């Protein structure tokens, strides 16, 4: 089979104006082209869409993945293309890939095979510059913070209580912890600092959760940067950074319109990771899609314990979304890995049997969240038919419909049965997503609800630092915010080595960060790095550009 890159470069793309016309957008002033095959939706169009009736929403989640991913984006794209094949209008809504994973171990995030969003080279690299705008706005606030310290510290900022890091859209472990301001007084006061990947930036989360430009500015203003010597909050508004940050995000707030390998529409906007942020595309893009088509397909990052839980408990209540259909992606590779196979590609039947417990738990998680999942078994080349049948039978015994799909090799055609199953499951049923905690409850109760009901933990314990963080949260009045737990995606627990359906374990909360602008708290479960590092053989080693300007090695 051809490589992802070869397939992407073989597809005849429609001019982006024609893609827009397919959505009923006939006034070309309502889209802002970025070349021939990318465009931003104008603010004027977004305003016009507000009064339209909304379509229906399908959430795509997954079982616990391997480090390489299980094709959830590929399935999401294939499902949307299949719905269009069935005569319904559908848009897939995805996050923008981060350069960190693109050059790291996981690779690009534009789908794969015959189920991709295009132009994939642009999407995986700089795209329309949104992530750069987020990085710039974030680092402007960091610069203004240190500038205030340098010029006499008029706000009385306590340098021991600075919470806002710097950011970079790259896997670069040496920047996780650093000292800035070295080299003398002219370089500012020396202090400890840190850096997070842009996907973990609070500014990225704010852009994804804002409902309009005014809401964006209000959220930026509320960012908690530090405390003063009286333990009072210092915000972005106090530093006078809000207006300039919003100006840098002027175009980044507009969703990006592209197309799939079958020339169907896709919206790509914002890129928060699900393990360290909320993990879905922007509310603005999702709202636009819901008003432009019959069925919106949105992907939630990682497994149901992360992206799906956060979508139901955090994003959907904030935006008023109702989830009409749910797809749970599984692969034989991931199931065997969860069953303890040393090499998941060569795992035995016994590993698959053991791994099915992980699938069972994710089905239960979806139901706990009020969703009725259809299991999409994403078939890889070499998957055994008898093993696929075993997974289908196991799902049926659990009362869940399971369908084998082949989006990578067959595009939308390979997801038609899945699309029919999802539409049938959603037919005549109103969305019934069900948050598992009340935002008004105690912080500890919110954490306990997710840990016990979704992760399966027996107990939640807090480190001394986390207990200090809790005290500060209550003292500052942030305890009514929802939570967005940062946790490994490789296990239902906070230990990446605990496979399958862990039971009887403790979740250790090591810290709780306040994200006042985004509007949530981030309890950190176990040890989490907010800035990844490159692997021994990163994908960057494979990527090149040919003499004719064509990108090579992206996947």
Radius of gyration: 23 Å
Count of discrete alpha- or pi-helical segments spanning 4 or more residues: 19
CATH secondary-structure class of the largest domain: Alpha Beta
Tally of discrete structural domains = 3
Q: How many beta-strand elements?
A: 23
Helix content range = 25-40%
Instruction: Give me the secondary-structure category.
Output: alpha/beta
CATH topology descriptor of the largest domain: Rossmann fold
Strand content: 15-25%
Overall mean pLDDT = 95
CATH homology superfamily name of the largest domain? P-loop containing nucleotide triphosphate hydrolases
CATH architecture annotation name of the largest domain:
3-Layer(aba) Sandwich
Cα distance spanning the termini: 13 Å
Low-confidence runs (pLDDT<50, min 5 residues)?
none
What does the main sheet amount to? 12 strands, mixed
What's the overall geometry?
globular
Protein name: Formate--tetrahydrofolate ligase
InterPro entries: Formate_THF_ligase, Formate_THF_ligase_CS, P-loop_NTPase
EC number: 6.3.4.3
Pfam families: FTHFS
